[in-house]
């Protein structure tokens, strides 16, 4: 330290800016835009003279077609500095498939007057293109770029899945603030209304019409309010009531699905939330008002309440000092001290909420002006409102993102949704798909007993599937999972963990060996597949890891009668085992009924603790497969099984679940699956091995079973005590029908993990109310797993 610094402190050292990583917001240079073309999908984007377009084959082996047109919609081969070399056959096949994605693409082309009759395409990739392969093109004149990632329906044996293509467009003209492009309309809009920053706009909609509130640039709040016109005509100004809405729904705010409506004070429904790509909103606080800014030291600050009053005055609606509202994109929560707090919104550019008007409405929406805190990310921007006709068919959906910076994907229906939706309307979003919670006439207890005594069928399509292929595929998996993959023969399956370097778990799942260099990873999340792909690139291995989740849907048929049921409908080739010959953790390609039937892959695996099988098929064959299973199952007492009953049987069977029994801070030993880490017999190194050797030698926590001596329910996160000291927490709990008692899985300190240890489960604040329990062996049901082996 020099003398000047010692005397006067820091000299010539200006403050450095805060370092904040925002993976959910644009992190590219100001002149670069990113677009993702889903596998089997397409998109349209405008390009200008001088733009540089980089096309990336994200996962490898994926063909790409680029088609260009001028701004008038005429096919124009001169937009790029590369001539077309194909007839756009892949894109035309995509448009002809008739699904919702194709319908949206056709509507987009129609709005731009694009005629594909003479379309020619630039083709690239496919063949043996590696993951991350890229090509660059220069735009030579203004026009439209149509990009697609074509592919035929996947053959489960050939593993020919379709995967995403990424476009990076480096613009010669940088967009100015406020020029953020809007997402494509969901259909032809009735109204397009821009709500400029720090303003509010009112509008009317008719019963059945749809209202889309769009966050244009991201991190921007919009207060929304609505009134029934019929009541306004009678002089009754009954606005949407947040307290009534929360009370009737039992939720903090409406969301797509069954609890989707918002009500006025008389409990009449005004709107129904149909789609939501953000999922984080506020229905606790009022729209910002002058009092808030006055108290913060900003008297006279523009606010949403005054903007509402001004806009609604057009309809003769009296002003208020504070408007309650649905505060879309506003990020509030309640902490352990019952304090409401807020932070920056979760919404990204183009995120939206789509509502359906349930009566004729007067509506008002704001673009919140708050710039004195994090409510709008410190910078207020625009909101955009679109309305659509009542006869549009918009599916209920939330948004699922594979990673924080991924393109949102709306909730999908599985290949088996048609059958299950005939039996229930109670669906919940799970990993980007709608899955049934419970069924109308059975309910979870009857579904449970069917699994234990007869047979059930359940939808497991959201499980993530990745095709791992190439000459280094075995080496990649051997290094990235804990089990010894070299011991696996074609036709065999193994259950394994996948860990980070510190031993924490990424995921658990199964590895199918299809051939010498062909594997399939089936896990619970997308991160595991991305991790595998990243490791292949890091190590320079010649192996491809390509997502096939959307190409391979699966049901599980479980229960004592599952073998007798399936052997009536499953045909296998002569060189493969018959259904009744299939051993535990084995699989075979098969057909439904006969050689010409729908192709499936049948594995003797499951998530029930019973004898059971899983059937994998392409979505196009899903209806055929579920119909065959359902028809054959009637004489065997087959019932559908929802998520509520599934949780009951998996807890009894000691089967673990992500974010309950394990996470990235939990190693396989602490998660109760230490058997997946053969440290003595697997001599090869694998990721996390060194850490796992150390963690096994010095364990801190252990997964155990609990028998609760009370009929009160316990659940994830409940604290476990001996005296005042907390020694663990419940990971999952259930009232077991077959054991006739409350049971739980729990992670406790190893000092207190001995069978017979008496503990207490804390309720309320953990101390005022305790439920006595005993540490026992798990699984509680069939601990030797004789039933699935039978």
Overview in brief:
The chain has 790 residues and is an alpha+beta fold.
Portion in helices: 10-25%
Using the alpha-carbon principal axes, give the shape.
Answer: globular
Distance between the termini: 76 Å
Rg over alpha carbons: 29 Å
Strand content is 25-35%
Assign the structural class, choosing from mainly alpha, mainly beta, alpha/beta, alpha+beta, or little secondary structure. alpha+beta
Total count of helical runs of at least 4 residues = 16
Main beta-sheet strand count, sense and barrel state: 8 strands, mixed
Low-confidence stretches: none
- The total beta strand count reads 42
The averaged pLDDT comes out at 93
Describe this structure in words.
- This protein is of the alpha+beta class.
- α9 crosses α14.
Question: What labels would you give this structure?
Answer:
single chain, 790 residues, alpha+beta, eight-stranded mixed β-sheet, seven-stranded mixed β-sheet
Give the helices and strands, then pairings.
Blueprint: H1 3-8, E1 32-37, E2 42-47, E3 52-57, E4 64-69, H2 89-95, H3 100-111, E5 122-124, E6 133-138, E7 143-148, E8 165-170, E9 191-195, E10 200-205, E11 210-215, E12 222-228, H4 229-232, H5 242-249, E13 261-263, E14 269-276, H6 290-295, H7 304-312, E15 326-328, E16 331-334, E17 340-343, E18 352-357, E19 361-366, E20 383-388, E21 397-400, E22 409-410, H8 417-420, E23 427-430, E24 433-436, H9 443-453, E25 455-459, E26 464-469, H10 473-480, E27 493-499, E28 505-515, E29 518-523, H11 526-539, E30 544-547, E31 553-558, H12 562-566, E32 570-571, E33 587-592, E34 599-603, E35 612-617, H13 622-633, E36 638-640, H14 643-652, H15 689-697, E37 701-708, E38 719-722, E39 725-736, E40 741-749, E41 758-763, E42 769-776, H16 786-789
Parallel strand pairs: 14-21, 25-36
Antiparallel strand pairs: 1-8, 2-7, 3-6, 3-8, 4-5, 4-7, 9-20, 10-19, 11-18, 11-20, 12-15, 12-19, 13-14, 14-18, 16-17, 21-22, 23-24, 25-31, 26-29, 26-30, 27-28, 28-29, 31-35, 32-33, 33-34, 34-35, 37-40, 37-42, 38-39, 38-41, 39-40, 41-42
